[in-house]
Amino acid sequence: MFSYLLLLIGFSYASAQQIANPESYLDSLKQELKVKWPKNSTKNLVFHGHSVPTGYLTNGVTDRLNAYPFLTLKLLNDNYPYSVVNIITTSIGGEQSEQGAKRFKKEVLIYKPDVLFIDYALNDRSIGLERALIAWEQMIQEALEYGTKVILLTPTPDLKEDITSDDAPLEKHSQQIRSLAKKYNLGLVDSYSYFKSLAKTQPLPAFMAQNNHINQKGHQFVANSIYEYFKY
């Protein structure tokens, strides 16, 4: 009951807030990425979540360099030629947000992230909205207390769900993540909305390695959406 009340309070509060503006949320960081040696400094982008940011495709095969964290690095490398950016993945295949929250301080913040990305919704279906809300809020609050910028990601598709349905479990988790981004004025990469729109004109299997893992094409879409926060 307490979790449910927390959920309602969070949604009510979120309605009065706004998602961070992609054009300005990382303004100070973007300026730092333009600085030349020897005055430049290394920046850490940390991706926390499950198998998708880790780079799992199908049958246990991984393609790390073509997963969205490293495709994001390629975009940054091409557009910020003087930058030194570390891409750090603290994601673990099969993990949900409660497990990620337990190791957050010791295994995520230890990397001193300049920007933190959280992507857990695919696996959070196993614990439900209320428990996921508590875990996400814990990680968000700890990250903000540390002083890092935070960008939340709604889930990429699962072909076993009807992505066009507003009652699909992943849609419910997406709504919760959007509300958290508004509540805390965080960045948001709304992958679910993008793929939902894409499904109106193209068959989603073309962007999937298996039912719940996107392929390189799918990862590129997510990376492109992340890069919207770094454009200048």
From TrEMBL:
Keyword vocabulary terms for this entry: Signal
The residue ranges of the SGNH hydrolase-type esterase domain are 58-220
- InterPro entries in alphabetical order: Ester_Hydrolysis_Enzymes, SGNH_hydro, SGNH_hydro_sf
Q: Which residues form the signal peptide?
A: 1-16
Whether Manganese counts among this entry's keywords is no
PANTHER family cross-referenced by the UniProt entry? SGNH HYDROLASE-TYPE ESTERASE DOMAIN-CONTAINING PROTEIN (PTHR30383:SF5), THIOESTERASE 1/PROTEASE 1/LYSOPHOSPHOLIPASE L1 (PTHR30383)
Q: Per its record, how is this protein called by name?
A: Lipase
Name the species this protein comes from. Answer: Flavobacterium pokkalii
